[in-house]
Amino acid sequence: MQFFLDNIDLFRDAFLNTLGLTLFAGVLALVLGTVLAGMRVSPIAPLRGLATVYVEIFRNTPLTVVFFFVIFGLPQIDTVVPFFTGAVIAVGTYTAAFVAEAIRSGINSVAPGQAEAARALGLTFSQTLTTVVLPQAFRTVVPPLGSVLIAMAKNTSIAAGFSISEVSSLLARLSNADPNDLLFILLGVVLAYMIITVPAAIALNRIEHRVAILR
Amino acid sequence: MRLTRYAAAAAAFGVVLAGCSSEAGQQAEEQADNTVAVETDVEFEAGTTMAELAEAGTMTVGVKFDQPGFGLLNPSGEPEGFDVQIATIIAANLGIAPEDIEFVESVSANREPFIQNGTVDIVVATYTINDARKQLVDFAGPYYEAGQDIMVAAGNPEGIAGPDDLAGKNVCSVEGSTPAQNIRDNYPEATLTLFDVYSKCADALTNGQVDAVTTDNVILTGLVAGNPEGFELVGNPFTEEPYGIGLSLGDTEFRNFINDTLEASFEDGSWAEAWDATAGAITGEDAPEPPSIDRY
What Pfam families does the database record attribute to this sequence (chain B) (predicted)? Predict the structure, then answer.
């Protein structure tokens, strides 16, 4: 216990790294995922194809491999990204594929009559998407999107193997420094993740109820 | 050139060209004619770990799978290296043939748990003896004395001659390792980049993402051997890292047995032979003086 308290500073720094990684990667995943979902339902075939290829590649590649590609693969083609940025890119681009699929399922749940009515009113495709379809789609996908984002928060632990001193990397460092205190170190790590994921789950639950559509 | 590199990178999405040793195949061959004679007539006092293992005719040993020269999985899936040879010598004295030893990968972080929960009988995995670890496991040995050193890109562009030159430099090591903690404690002006395995540090050094890699000299030697055009060793060890054999706490009889076995191997030359066939084959240097056993 004392050992855990002695290293509380380490836990704070690592926690901030995990939190930062989660927030930045989350924003990237949401933005990129929404764009991809839009591309997948667009009337332009090449865009649809591109988004499909993206989703299938990233959804079917282990995150560790994506990390390897960003951290060690990109420098081979003279693109060196800082480690933290690289981690954000890896987690964000990977999660974007899952976000895109969740949002696409929401888009499919919007009755086709909605889009037809919008088109009849003379709205363009992007207007139809952004003002009619997506606002309704987002409401239905809050629960699956929440699961994707919470999974992402935990997936940031892969960054431990790629030089980011985040919460789960403390497991290796502290358990090796003092193997006696393994239990408290483990508890501290679990707690740190829960501080991020539990409030996120509660917030998502609130949002879900607030934006629910009565059908 | 540029084009092919782009093509290769694009085609090999995510396939990582981790630095690996070309020594592996040769080592396997040399190792084959270097096995210690297995004792056939062994007798141990009933109830001791030695008696149990000799009776079972098999033992489980934790070794590293990613450290050239000490414990590295060769292409055919067999671990090889100095640690593996040491384990073979100990097993031979228990009447256990090399093919009856089960090798389990023990990364730095799971060595104590593996010993404590009985996953392995002993750990021979570049395992530095220190006081915190002595609280949890017993150590036989040391069977080798390593020291922390620095590896830099070939030509040493940053002019690093020792740990004091690391100030302001980006130094790579492995999270949770003793060398990383040493840098953190004694050379706080160095920026640490920490991966989970040393091969990633080698990749980062190749890419210029870090300026130097630091850990025990023997590990660095293995990495240099894997890419002699790309890396060089500073060759100025600044710590002492006695490598011991981990076994479960309080098993004094077993510890004494291993210590005796090690001492015998120092004397009859099998220790030096094991070195020449493995780590020595990489460094190209003769076996050093064996360390003195620490019967604490």
Answer: SBP_bac_3
